[in-house]
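One such given next:

>
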Amino acid sequence: MKDIWFNLLLYKRVEYKYKFGVIRFKKNKNYSSYFSVYDESIWNNHINNFVDCYLDCYLDCYLIYEITDIYKYGVYLYIYDLFFEESKSNDDIKMDDINDVDYLDIEEDINNKYKKLWVQCENCYGLNYKKLFKSRMNICEHCDFHLKMNSSDRIDLLIDPGTWESMDEYMFSVNPIEFYSEEESYTDRLSFYQIRTGLIEAVQTGIGKLNSIPVAMGVMDFQFMGGSMGSVVGEKITRLIEYAKNKSLPLIIICASGGARMQEGSLSLMQMAKISSVLYGYQLKNNLFYISILTSPTTGGVTASFGMLGDVIIVEPNAYIAFAGKRVIEQTLKKIVPEGLQTAENLFHKGLFDLIVPRNILKEVIYELFELQGLLP
């Protein structure tokens, strides 16, 4: 029903635009002139108001009337009628004028402009309203599937407000082996992701407080080149561990990575040994506490090194954890990999992890683990 209502809403926008721009558009077939007679800001406010109206009605009805299917249908009809009321008196344009307009082009324009209002779940394909999505910690409201989070949101999730201090934030990658690709150079690719994500590299490191307990934390960001581990990522994590060792701080590393960065060759593979070596001194020689948090996806060199070396290994529900991916295994071994073999729940029963923790209680669980270790504010 939600999808029907939203599709009707979008369809009405086409009709609404036609009534103001179709005559000019028909005469010269010029897209720019067609859109120039329509104020986009009016429509943005219009659709946002009705979406908010729908959500408010839905929430109120759920709390008061316990939402029956009949009542929900009535809410949709109410919003539909309210939205279409304003255009019922503007039907003076003939259908012959509208038929000459390319519906597919206009529909594509609608999809490009307003698809950002919603976030589609990759598990159940349900639509989540974007304004409320962050407050739900990127968890699908329909099936509770944990969708990807960027590194900044994860810092906000765990670290007390105003206590985060970044480390080595201006350290950036170069092209150490002069990697060349016909499609795109490595430096251009780095620049693209730096602009797209606002980050300089695929990991953020720093210190902060978790429920007033000082911690050192590194957070990988899958949106930056798939969270791939290059020489800068390895160096930042290594420096973070050394700082935590010198200050006797507990360590948290949140992993989200496709593995070693191929554009840096063996230098990226070397980071596995470097980080593992410094972790050995941190954990065994200094008896300090390291929590590894695996999110979806965590694969390749990160899984084969510091991702699986935590004193406590926590994984998010339904996370994809592997060394080699399903396609690589099938192409190499010529065997079919069963569905769900590399999910967190299946691997948990094999003893690979200590805890499967939903995102909304993660901070409290980590705090309890710190208390068990005698780490108090």
In short: Residues 2-28 form the longest helix (27 residues). The radius of gyration is 26 Å. Confidence is low (pLDDT under 50) at residues 10-38, 62-76, 82-98.
